[in-house]
Write a structure and sequence with these properties.
The chain has 99 residues and is of the alpha+beta class. The protein is built from 5 helices and 3 strands, in the order H-H-E-H-H-E-E-H. It has one domain: Winged helix-like DNA-binding domain superfamily/Winged helix DNA-binding domain (Arc Repressor Mutant, subunit A).
């Protein structure tokens, strides 16, 4: 079989993943909250974001899947923080893209 050439660069794939994660205003809002503090518990986020907890959970899952947010389970709570390395990478990728 002939090898298929990769069309998209690694950076383009990462940028698309971060863009998808930030494609909803609630997720942008959550990242804004997390960028202003070290970490936040899911219960505290639920008080700040006026949506159902199940919906909040889905948005946090999307952010975690993208790598922008990380969660640490401390039963019965989950602590969420920005993944600072990926956050910086996303900033750089967007900056380069919009140059």
């Amino acid at each position: 079989m002939e090898e298929v050439k990769q069309f998209y660069s690694v950076e383009e794939k990462k940028l698309a993943r971060y863009a998808k994660a930030l494609s909803h205003p609630v997720r942008v809002y959550i990242c804004g909250i997390l960028s202003k503090q070290a970490c936040c518990y899911s219960g505290d986020l639920a008080e700040e974001v006026p949506i159902a907890r199940s919906t909040l959970s889905q948005h946090l899952k999307e952010l975690k899947n993208s790598g922008l947010v990380q969660g640490e389970i401390n039963p019965p709570k989950i602590k969420y923080c920005l993944n600072k390395e990926n956050w910086a990478e996303a900033q750089q990728l967007f900056k380069e893209f919009f140059k």
